Amino acid sequence: MAQDYNLECSDCLCCSHPALLARNSPATPLENPPNRYVLNPTGLQTPSFTDSQQDCQTSPSVSCVSEDLHDLKHRLLEIEKAMMGPDPDETTNYPLAADVENKWKEMKEIVAGGNLKQTLLACAHAVADGDNLMANWLMTELGQMVSVYGDPLQRLAAYMLEGLVAKHAFSGSFIYNSLKCKEPPPGSDLLSYMRIIYELCPYIKFAYLSANGTIMEAMRGETQLHVIDFQIAQGTQWMGLIQTLGALPSPPCLKITGIDDPANAYARGGDLNIVGQRLSQIAQSCKVPFDFHPVEVPACEVQIEHLGVKQGEAVAVNFILQLHHIPDESVDVANHRDRILRMVKSLSPKVVTILEQESNTNTAPFFQRFGETLDYYNAMFESIDVTLARENKDRTRVEQHCLAKEIVNVIACEGAERVERHEPFGKWKSRLSMAGFSPVSLSPTIHASVRSLLLKFHRNYRCEERAGALFLGWKNRDLVVSSAWK
Question: Is residue 451 in a domain?
């Protein structure tokens, strides 16, 4: 008897699902029984015969006949079962169909209950298992449950669904490259969105404050400072540092090497010389001797000769949300992530400042990676929700252009196409230790400055010191970690 899954099956894939076809069709004799395929819990297999059974099919001989009539019937029954497949009335022979029925029932209950988080996870599980029928149905249902104008989970789910569709259809890379959320807006608009998130949330201010404070303390008394920034972007971080140096009785000479991928030029409206000119103007107004050295190459391609370090310079290296973009051994045998760290160590820097997301998506299997992304970005979207109204168009654009692209990349892409490869602090600590670095504890002055910063934001933000690093999070979820090394 056919199983009823209470789905509208007209012209849908469920009617051709191989497990259901096998369950709905009774076993019948075939003209050539030895070629019969039998459905069993491990898939479709051809029956295997012993040598004596093979002999019996071709030319029965006296060796096949038992003197015991009961034994003869038993042997014939075994041969018949092997050749003809299981009896259609023996429902216990079809655990797959029963499992499928229970699975659909469970999924229908989750969807009917409107549990968006569980529906997302169920869809991701179906994609991970290669269950196309279930994945397609759940994606259709999710399309009715998500909205970029809804609550934080609904908004996040809209982008996660986009990632699931991409992952399910073409393993991510093809659809990801044409997703609307990846199409960059005009540079001036993107810059304005980045400024909005800079003002709305404390994450980047926290990074700049902790990194600059650490650099100032490590460089105390030095006369030739060389700061190497592995993703200088607009150079915003160094404006405050220049002003602080300018307030000293005798400002030191400051050289900044700014590294950035040439592909990011559209956000600035030009090459890195724009950043250099802006910083030079500020340095001049603060009477700080200044030199800017642009390096327009992707971070993973940087070689030591690009950095232009000279004898007598006190070196500080800065990685703000950058190291996780550099591919490691799981992507490329060259392992640029560890190569860059060893190269930086060879410079004997006074300090290395790092800010990274506290998330584990680098080498995690797809379903685990999906769950981690859901938990991490749900906290991020909640933190945005308390500062911008849901109907605010700027909020929608900020999430679309500053966060959605990351989300889709983590979910949809694999290999070199997946550039968002976050690791938790424990893994970074191991990498840095293997490269020869030792942790530098952040001073009480920096702790006090961070606490003062957070007073300007929602009370659900929290900052804790653990293992010599500062963890900034939303409610009970750690989001970013600031640390220093030498």
Answer: yes
In a domain, 478, yes or no: yes
C-alpha angle 57/63/65, rounded to 5°? 80
CA distance 16 to 14: 5
Confidence of residue 180 (pLDDT cuts 50, 70, 90): very low
Q: What is the pLDDT of residue 293?
A: 97
Last residue of a domain, one of 38, 63, 87: 87
Domain carrying residue 53: 27-87
Same domain, 315 and 463: yes
Kindly state whether residues 206 and 83 are assigned to the same domain: no
The arithmetic mean of pLDDT across residues 342-346, rounded, is 98
Task: Give mean pLDDT, residues 374-389.
Answer: 93
Q: Give the least confident one: 106-110, 236-240, 429-433.
A: 106-110
- With a threshold of 0.70, does the pTM exceed it? yes
Q: What is the mean pLDDT of residues 433-455?
A: 95
Q: 361-379 pLDDT, tens per residue?
A: 999 999 999 999 999 999 9
CATH code of the domain in which 453 resides:
3.40.50.150
Number of domains within the chain = 2
For the record, the structure tokens of 449 come out as 């400055």
